[in-house]
Amino acid sequence: MTTFLLARHAAHDWLGRGFAGRQPDVHLNAQGRQQAQELVQRLASFALDAIYCSPQPRTHETVQPLAQARGMAIQTEAAFDEVDLGDWQGRTFAEVRDQPEWKHWCERRGSAQPPGGEPFAGVAQRGVEGLQRLMHGHPEQHVLVVSHGDPLKAMIASHLGLSLDKLEQFDIAPASISILALGEGWSRLHLLNAQGPLR
Q1: Is 166 helix (H, G, I), strand (E, B) or coil?
Q2: Beta strands across the sheet bearing 142-147
């Protein structure tokens, strides 16, 4: 068994207004930097054996204070990257709201694909496969994975057997922690979207 602590990156200025996507210049704002500092104490009672992040700078910035406090390296794992949003990257929600692909994205995520981007089902597949690889590489260990809201939702939904069309039924907030235990042929969600102190 491997215990995964699944963290969403902390706050940045694109939240709530548009698609940050994989833009390289998206960094944590003041609130996000505070959330990153708070993560050190929030996870103080947890042993950690490895830290993996999406390639995006905001995930690394989220976990940097914790990694520094523990003297741990941050490893990059492309399987946990943000969705490739294609033509939507860098656009506001208001700019895409009238597109038919947007309605499909909101209501039928399992078969949705942003214009010029990747199919969402592929996001779920690469995330699940990434966790499987880490499970085999870190047996009986605690692994912190820092990723993004939609990829984390996709991974959790897949392990719970939920349709990807139902992702709007639960939230993954910035700087939240979810805990997933993963073994050969089974999984168990112990915590979802925790935003306060953890024990």
Answers
A1: helix
A2: 74-76, 50-53, 142-147, 2-8, 177-183, 186-194
> How far apart are the C-alpha atoms of 85 and 26, rounded to whole Å?
15
Beta pairing partners, 142 = 3
> Which amino acid is it at 168?
E
Active-site residues, by number, are: 9, 148
Task: State pLDDT tens for residues 18-42.
Answer: 999 999 999 999 999 999 999 999 9
Domain extent for 9? 2-194
Q: What is the CATH classification number for the domain harbouring 65? A: 3.40.50.1240
Side chain identity at 17, as an amino acid letter?
R
Confidence tier at 168 by pLDDT (50, 70, 90): confident
What one-letter code names the amino acid at 98?
Answer: D
Whether 51 is covered by a domain: the verdict is yes
Residue ranges of E strands in the chain: 2-8, 50-53, 74-76, 142-147, 177-183, 186-194
Structure tokens, 24: 């390289």
Q: Which two tokens stand for residue 21?
A: 């996507």
What is the number of other CB atoms lying within 10 angstroms of the CB of residue 23? 15
Radius of gyration of the chain, Cα coordinates, nearest whole angstrom:
16
Cα–Cα nearest to 127, from 187, 195, 196: 187
Total domain count for the chain?
1
Alpha-carbon dihedral 64, 69, 75, 78, rounded to 10 degrees: -40
